[in-house]
Amino acid sequence: MIDPRILRDEPDRVRRSLHKRGMPTTVVDDALAADGRRKGSIQKFEQKRAQQKEIGLKIKKAAPAEKSVLLSTTKEISNDVKAYQADLSSAEQEWDRALKAIPNVADDAPAGGEDDFVLIETVGTPREFDFEPRDHIELGKLLGAIDIERGAKVSGSRFYFLTGVGAELEFALINLAMEQAREAGFTQVIPPSMVKPRAMEGTGFLGQAADDVYRIEGQDMYLVGTSEVPMAAYHSDEILDGAKLPLRYAAFSPCFRKEAGSHGKDTKGIIRVHWFDKVEMFVYTTLEDASAEHLRLLNWEKSFLDKLELAYRVIDVAAGDLGLSAARKYDCEAWIPTQGKYRELTSTSNCTDFQTRRLDTRGRFGSDIKPVATLNGTLCAMTRTIVAILETHQQADGSVRVPKALQPWLGGREVLEPVAP
RNA sequence: GGAGGCGUCGCCUAGCCCGGUUUAUGGCGCCCGCCUGCUAAGCGGGUUGAGGGUAAUCCCCUCUCGCGGGUUCAAAUCCCGCCGCCUCCGCCA
Questions:
Q1: Tens of pLDDT, residues A243-252
Q2: Which of A9, A100, A113, A280 is the most buried (most CB within 10 A)?
């Protein structure tokens, strides 16, 4: 949730942000009204409660005659207290609901929707082919790396088996990513990929994004769409030592997405699937440092893509295309030869104190306790990365050149060769 | 899945049987000050968090003893449900 002080002191700033996201601004007035009602209820309740406590103290030492009088008056007060308390809790719920409906304040993100991103830079040049390039589906088949037919047979559409060098490629990518993370000082984590509602809600995935989330039948649990979810909840209800920030984690987990509303999009291949594995960077830091850390995350993403020798561009995602929690987001989009366009491979978001307020994570700085920020960034999402590698580094005979950085993790192989069918 | 035990302020711990002045004892740690040539030791004080009254130091109030509900004028303390942890048993990768 956003800082209530921003809502009270700068409601127009919040309205501007909503406007940039293309959303109605009525939530602002709803929340302000709820805030007013809540304060009124607090005062009524607290005053009654103080009165009740005061008389309660007298009762113990009162003489019997006096006692029965006191008991009867305080009985009435007790009823009032209960009534006011009920009022208060409903006012508080209303306030909470209204406040949580407001997405993070996107002061610096470009206005508009999906197509209104700002291009930050282009790195490398899309490869020119002197032969007709094969798409990753065909390459995956030739190499014995990706089995889409059997994925569909066993699990349905948007599922796949990675086999042989396909599986090896994933392990190699995980190792390369984790090596980079370790060298950059990240703590490696394997988090649970099933979580309770609190974690899902706290990270902002039960809002508009709820349609995309798998719920476990009869269990009140969810499958995560990214390890951002367990990692944001990791320090919930904690006060972190400010001197130890930033806390940097690199988490490996499967990611499950319903992909509701994307029927017909990317129906072939493994660009858009219901499950993939991912190494995700997740950082807790100070609010002051968050923007700088955001750029660091972007740089780590770029250097990983550089190691894979891919051509890509970096965009500043427009407000309307941000998640509920993000104040700003940069995507790295790699060139996919057979699609003739750039596709998102990694994404990094600055969630400022939006998630930590919901999940009750704060920091102690000397004698102060202050909010902290969370940021997340993809180091490597396996499936799309494999697509980009296969398509970009393919050769005329259907073999695929292995980027240098990946070779040590593939037994020193420089080329992946087609296998006999 | 079955049986039993436990969950108190950063950590450890007292209080709970016999409800009231208890945010709650003591120790450790931490912070401030004193003492000492420096260090150690010693002495004194402070140290849960949140929300309101306030723009605010101070001050005042309310909530906070795993979570939720109940009993009661009043609950850390009594009752019920849930969650978590530990031990034993069963089952199992």
A1: 888 999 999 9
A2: A280
- With bands split at pLDDT 50, 70 and 90, how would you rate the model's confidence at A177? very high
Q: Where are the beta strands (DSSP E) in A235-385?
A: 238-241, 247-256, 275-286, 312-316, 328-336, 341-350, 361-365, 368-381
- Averaged over A248-264, what is the pLDDT? 90
Q: What is the pLDDT of residue A144?
A: 95
Residue nearest to nucleotide B63 (CA to C1'): A46
- Provide, in whole angstroms, the distance separating residue A47's CA from nucleotide B56's C1': 23
Where helices occur in A283-393 by DSSP H, the ranges are 290-307, 354-359, 382-392
Inter-CA distances, A346 with A298, A389, A413, Å? 9, 14, 26
Question: Which of the four pLDDT bands, split at 50, 70 and 90, describes residue A78?
Answer: confident
Please, what is the angle between helix A165-183 and helix A290-307, to 10°?
A: 140
Residue nearest to nucleotide B74 (CA to C1'): A56
Q: Beta strand pairing status for A247-256 and A275-286?
A: antiparallel
Q: Residue A291: what pLDDT?
A: 95
pLDDT at A106: 93
Kindly report the bases of strand B lying within 7 A of a protein C-beta atom: 20-21, 49-53, 61-63, 69, 73-74
Q: What are A192-196's contacts with CB under 8 Å, separation 24+? A: A192/A230, A193/A223, A193/A224, A193/A227, A193/A230, A193/A253, A193/A254, A193/A255, A193/A256, A194/A221, A194/A222, A194/A223, A194/A224, A195/A221, A195/A222, A195/A224, A195/A229, A195/A230, A195/A233, A196/A220, A196/A221, A196/A222
| Residue A127 CA, nucleotide B32 C1', distance (Å) | 66
Tens of pLDDT, residue by residue over A92-104, are 888 988 999 999 9
How many CB atoms are closer than 10 A to CB A268? 11
Enter the ipTM: 0.84
CA angle, A44 as apex, A39 and A94 as ends, to 5°? 40
Domains and CATH numbers, chain A: 4-100 (1.10.287.40), 114-416 (3.30.930.10)
